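We modelled the chain as a single entity of 289 amino acids. Its sequence is:
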Amino acid sequence: MKIKSLAFIFFIISCELFAQEVRTIQPSIMVIPRAKEGQDLRTLIDESHDMRVAISEVQQGFNDRDYTTKDFVTLLKALLRDEAVTSDNQTEFRNRIFQNAGTDIIVEVDFSLNKSTSGNLVRIILSGNETDSGNALSNKTCESGRFYTDDVGNLSKRAIQSCIDEFLETMNNKFSLIVEDGKSVKIEFGFHQNSNLNMNSLIDSKNDRLKYLIEDWLTQNAYKNYVKISSTTNTKIAVEDFRYPLKNEKTNMNNTPSSVQRDIDRFLMSLNVNATIDYSNNTLYITIE
């Protein structure tokens, strides 16, 4: 009896640990409107009541399935308090949202309402993208079916209910690969026009050439040693794919490209090499001075 009791206790503990692990890797989500040509995210959410309703229904669908969601309107208001965003074009502003979302995934909602004598239909296209890289994880077109009603909320809910589980299954499968294989970022090492260094320069403290030191660091620090260096010249090293873990094991917080940026900066400082680092379009640009 004692053996059976211990086995049962072990089973319960294992189940609890498994549940905790599932919660740990489950992605967080922000739902935002997808702006069409000529539309602006900054005004779309205010001008379209139907879009607000659709976003609310999509977000509720995720909440009902125990996903952690972050409110887009709250982020939008915070960004609009920054005067710099007023000069952003649509692409720049969308990129700013991705950079400040603070979630694993952003789901964009493309909403349309089709009215006819045979009834009204809501069509919602869901596009899930990994926040840091912008890589597509899942896409799905959802339709409510035609009904004689002007209740956009109900039609939107019907549309989401028709497809959300399939959308999430695809998204979760892709996200599981990120958990397993790591997140991806591109890296480009180059030189300031006034720099006295190049990739063949000898770093005295290491008695080795700069390009070999960089290549070795990339291999040793990439998650599971996964790195693809597409080209190395006298003036540049282009890294097509550098993997880093989704979470920091010590803090259990999500890693971001800025985590990689800090590590590269510290590595270069250890060589007494100064550099400026910029991040744009999922690429870290390292300019050695």
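As a brief sanity check on the tokenised model: Residues 1-24 have pLDDT under 50 and may be disordered. The first strand starts at residue 28 and ends at 33.
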